[in-house]
Write a structure and sequence with these properties.
about 325 residues; five-stranded parallel beta sheet; Rossmann fold; 2 domains; seven-stranded mixed beta sheet
Length: about 325
């Protein structure tokens, strides 16, 4: 492990420190500053020549600054003759812009893939892509991990004796809900919704039975929280006894925290793929760290070991 280097980007300092503790590998220091005109300056302050470097940087708000910082950091590593540049980006910006829905629109997720690849990245590790097909936008290996097994462990530990049903907040999330339901041996329900414009949706109707049960709503991203709160209201209106919300990427834009605090859900379970500021943490919120999973991934990649076991969630005894 002596040739392995960890570097923290400015958006993921806390997550990188957790990974550093778990792997027992110190973070390689960098100089990271902004000039008066807003331009970013990066300098690697330790040797990386020929080393296997892992850069931890979640591409979250301010997304453009964090993306540009990562591109400059990759260039600095490449010019310092790093052996292999691996990106640990738990949350990828622009992932929801993965296709054209109207004429003259860009496919920005593909542009981001091109920028990272051309900059010199050799591998990307991410969690819960908004659309699986984004992996095909990259010309470098992409290791895409999922968040639902972490939620499965938590639910099994804290809600094992409850009468549960897994709920997908939209048709697109059915596969994710099914996977979580399979791990826990539960049934699913699906909310059919329509989106009239960006960041706004209307719930149409519920498919499945939630009456008298604790509904566990799972989604990949909680941004403005409008969709997930309406989903919670819908299952409650259809007779759910209690509501639990699970979300991998806690973007929490605008007044999302207030919406979640006021909604009917008794528990909100999130991960730290996106750093959650202390002023955004409310009493009913629980944050699960992805650091143990990422630490295992980094070690396996560095030692050229298979990642298959970490991808295989069907083995319930091992996962749960």
């Amino acid at each position: 492990m002596s040739r392995l280097r960890l570097i923290a980007g400015s958006s993921s300092q806390d997550l990188a420190e957790k990974i550093s503790t778990l792997t027992k590998i110190s973070l390689t220091p960098i100089e990271d500053k902004r000039f008066a005109n807003g331009e970013i300056y990066i300098r690697i302050k330790g040797k990386v020549r020929g080393d296997d470097v892992y850069v931890v940087q979640s591409l979250v708000a301010p997304a453009n600054d964090n993306l540009m910082e990562l591109l400059i950091l990759i260039d600095a590593l490449k010019r310092a003759s790093a052996g292999r540049i691996n990106l640990i980006c738990p949350n990828l910006c622009y992932s929801r812009q993965d296709r054209k829905t109207e004429s003259r629109e860009p496919i920005t997720a593909k542009l981001v893939a091109d920028l990272l690849s051309v900059a010199g990245a050799n591998r990307l590790v991410t969690v819960d892509l908004h659309a699986d097909q984004i992996q095909g936008f990259y010309n470098i290996p992409v290791d895409h991990f999922v968040g639902y097994p972490l939620f499965a462990k938590y639910i099994k530990k804290h809600y094992a004796k409850k009468d549960l049903v897994i709920v997908s907040p939209d048709i697109g999330g059915t596969k994710r809900a099914n996977k979580l339901a399979d791990l826990l041996g539960l049934q699913i329900a699906i909310i059919d919704k329509v989106r009239r414009e960006h960041n706004k949706c209307e719930v149409m109707h519920l498919i499945g039975d939630v009456k008298g049960k604790t509904a566990v709503i799972i989604d990949d991203i909680i941004d403005t929280a409008g969709s997930i709160v309406k989903a919670a209201e819908a299952v409650k209106a259809n007779g759910a006894k209690d509501v639990i919300i699970c979300g991998t990427h806690a973007v929490l834009s605008e007044d999302a925290v207030k919406k979640l605090g006021d909604c009917c859900a008794s528990k909100i379970i999130l991960t730290d793929t996106v750093p959650i500021a202390e002023d955004k943490r409310i009493k009913k919120m629980e944050v699960i760290s992805v650091a143990p999973l990422l630490a295992k991934i980094i070690k396996r990649i560095h030692l050229d070991r298979s990642l298959g076991e970490l991808f295989t969630w069907e083995d319930k005894k091992r996962v749960l």
